[in-house]
Write a structure and sequence with these properties.
The strands form 4 sheets. The chain has an 8-stranded mixed β-sheet with strand order 5-4-3-6-2-1-7-8, with helices on one face. It is elongated and about 115 Å long. Helix 7 packs across helix 8, helix 8 crosses helix 13 and helix 17 runs antiparallel to helix 18. The chain is built from 19 helices and 22 strands. The protein folds into 4 domains: 230 residues, Histidine kinase-like ATPase, C-terminal domain (Heat Shock Protein 90); 136 residues, 2-Layer Sandwich (Ribosomal Protein S5, domain 2); 81 residues, Rossmann fold; 138 residues, Up-down Bundle (Four Helix Bundle (Hemerythrin (Met), subunit A)). By secondary structure, it is of the alpha+beta class. It binds adenosine-5'-diphosphate (ADP).
Length: 629
């Protein structure tokens, strides 16, 4: 070998190399992905040449990538049987960073030709310097009789010398760095580690990636003796399941892929596979899990889909592909039309990504709508698991997405005794019913026993029972459905009384205005005390005026930073109940006792509404005093 003079990298390359090693890549593991992608490009180029140039002949079986490592010498060798590089190409492609031969090739190519070229930035190769202190590239081009070796120990420069390589292709030998306190480079000199890196990043490279692997064979069962033997194994599965013809994939295959890739013990509830051609072509394979991941409702959960560019993993969890309200969806997206930035880690301009995300959002939505229509049981099971997320989606972003999601919501119906959609509620509304009634509480049973619910039920109206604390926020965001407003049964004026009843109530309130004012003055938190005719058997209830309901106040109260948002509460007393008579009597004859009763009744009303009682000791003493008489 005649050594040629040592050449320096082109000046800007030096800085770039430094940048490359220290900052472009955040993850050292990807060096293998980059070198394998280059090898795959070289095999594609050779194959393409064989289609257009009669002098170039290839056997498909010979197109392969081989991986080897040597723990003693601390080397990893990546070999391909691709097009190889001439001396000039070695000089131009590896001597100048950010010079991509692949991009030139792609630009000069007839766009109809189907070749998958992964590389296009001309920096991937240098990522190998993150883990190596010396790299030797020996290559023989299909266009040259001679072969050359390119050697470099990093930013200093490189040498090119003649070499002896008989067959076309490229062999890259990485000399792996010594371990440091912070970095364990030796981990790469390990069969298991290399295998898993190939599986993770390069599983869908379309050429076989082979490695000599060690197998422990049982030699003697009784003596538990094993014998090691080596054999050449193909590490990658080559054809991703989402690229296979749908006819050739069984339901089980999808389920197994899901369980394997996303570490779930259960099959997915729904598989959504699509192949989109157009402005931005992509294939996607999405899954709706059958149960929420254990960390789903915690801050640790990260939404996102695995993003592949031409079968090469770019991002394990691309969050931009999913709106928050579908964050439970798992899956992969593979596109040839992505514009990647130099580190292949992020996307430079996200136009294509936005387009894909938009398509995926509407695809998931359509599939859910279909499921709701055609497989009710399955949808209900989905909704019980992830419905809360959809409801968040309705009120997040100031309700911007509510119209997309409102038809997917379900609430418990007092009449049907099961979950129904808003559309179904409207369809079954009684003649003359103008509004959608709802009631909130912590459980169906508790809501069912609310005093205010009784009156609406008596009129034979259906009531939606809201048991999730997000429910009422979602309803408030929707405002109305098919021109029907939502009305909380606990709001002060439901307008369900007859004219006659209204008249009597008005009169009772006017006649007793002093009594009611005394009660209100005693109970500082309520904005009004009044007699009502809307209660049947219950003596009292709390209702609210204005936008903030009692249920909302409970949510605000539970928040760590008290924003002081309070409902305007009205204490209503059943004017047909014996207690009304008693109050009037005490007001005339025993003011002290009257105040006691007022306090007790207010505490009762809070209790029924599920609100805490601030002075339980005082109240229980008062009750005892009253009942002991
Ligand atoms: P990129 O792959 O993004 O173009 P790289 O820095 O990884 O950039 O590689 C630079 C160029 O070197 C490639 O475009 C290609 O022309 C050439 N090259 C790299 N590896 C090989 C290989 N194994 N066989 C043939 N050419 C290669």
């Amino acid at each position: 070998m005649i050594c040629l003079e040592k050449k320096e990298f082109k000046s800007e390359s030096k800085r770039l190399l430094d940048l490359m090693i220290n900052s472009i890549y955040t993850n050292k593991d990807i060096f293998l992905r980059e070198l394998i992608s280059n090898a795959s490009d070289a095999l594609d180029k050779l194959y393409y040449r064989s289609l257009t140039d009669k002098n170039v002949k290839v056997k498909k079986d010979d197109l392969a990538i081989t991986l080897a490592f040597d723990t003693d010498k601390r080397t990893i060798t990546i070999t391909d049987t691709g097009c190889g590089m001439t001396k000039e190409e070695l000089e131009n492609n590896l001597g100048t960073i950010a010079k991509s031969g692949s991009l030139n090739f792609k630009e000069n190519m007839n766009s109809d030709e189907k070749v998958n070229i992964i590389g296009q930035f001309g920096v991937g190769f240098y990522s190998a310097f993150m883990v190596s202190d010396k790299i030797t590239v020996t290559s023989k081009s299909i266009d040259s009789e001679e072969s050359y070796a390119w050697k470099s120990e990093g930013a200093d420069g490189y040498t090119i010398s003649k070499a002896k390589k008989e067959s076309n292709g490229t062999e890259i030998v990485l000399h792996i760095k010594e371990d440091t306190d912070e970095e364990d480079y030796s981990k790469y000199l390990n069969e298991y580690e290399l295998k898993s890196l190939v599986k993770k990043y390069s599983d869908y490279i379309s050429f076989p990636i082979k490695m000599e692997c060690t197998h422990h064979d049982l030699k003697n069962e009784e003596k538990h003796e094993y014998e090691d033997h080596k054999c050449l194994e193909t590490l990658n599965s080559m054809m991703p399941i989402w690229k296979k013809n749908k006819k050739d994939v069984k339901e089980d295959d999808y389920d197994n892929f899901y369980m394997d890739k996303f570490n779930d013990f259960d099959k997915p509830l729904k598989v959504i596979s699509s192949s989109v051609e157009g402005m931005c072509s992509y294939k996607s394979l999405l899954f709706i899990p059958s149960h929420a991941p254990y960390d789903y409702y915690t801050q640790d959960y990260e939404k996102g889909l695995s993003l592949y560019a031409n079968g090469v993993l770019i991002m394990e969890r691309c969050a931009d592909l999913l709106p928050d309200y579908f964050s439970f969806v798992k899956g992969v997206v593979d596109s040839e039309d992505l514009s990647l930035n130099i580190s292949r880690e992020l996307l430079q301009e996200s136009h294509s990504l936005k387009l894909i995300a938009k398509n995926i959002e509407s695809k998931i939505r359509k599939e859910l709508e279909e499921m709701l229509k055609n497989d009710r049981e399955k949808y209900e099971s989905f909704f019980k698991t992830f419905g809360v997320q959809l409801k968040y989606g309705v009120y997040n972003n100031y309700g911007a997405d509510k119209d997309k999601l409102k038809d997917l919501l379900m609430f418990y119906s007092s009449k049907e005794g099961k979950l129904i959609t808003l559309g179904e509620y409207i369809k079954k509304m009684k003649d003359g019913q103008e509004v959608i009634y709802y009631a909130s509480g912590s459980s169906i049973a508790k809501i069912d026993s609310l005093p205010q619910v009784e009156q609406v039920k008596d009129k034979d109206y259906d009531i939606l029972y809201l048991t999730d604390y997000v429910d009422q926020f979602a309803i408030t965001a929707i405002q109305e459905y098919e021109n029907k407003k939502f009305i909380n049964v606990e709001s002060e004026d439901l307008n369900l009384e007859t004219e006659e009843e209204k008249e009597t109530t008005k009169k009772v309130n006017e006649d007793n205005s002093d009594l009611l004012k005394t009660m209100k003055d005693e109970l500082k938190e309520v904005s009004e005390v009044r007699f009502t005719s809307k209660l049947k058997n219950h003596p009292v209830c709390l209702t609210s005026k204005g936008d903030v309901s009692i249920e909302m106040q409970k949510v605000f109260d539970a928040m760590p930073n008290d924003m002081g948002i309070k409902a305007q509460m009205v204490l209503e007393v059943n004017e047909k109940h014996d207690i009304a008579k008693k109050l009037k009597d005490l007001y005339q004859n025993d003011k002290d006792e009257f105040i006691k009763y007022t306090k007790i009744l207010y505490a009762e009303a809070r209790m029924i509404a599920g609100l805490p009682i601030d002075n339980p000791t005082e109240i229980s003493t008062l009750i005892c005093e009253v009942i002991a008489k």
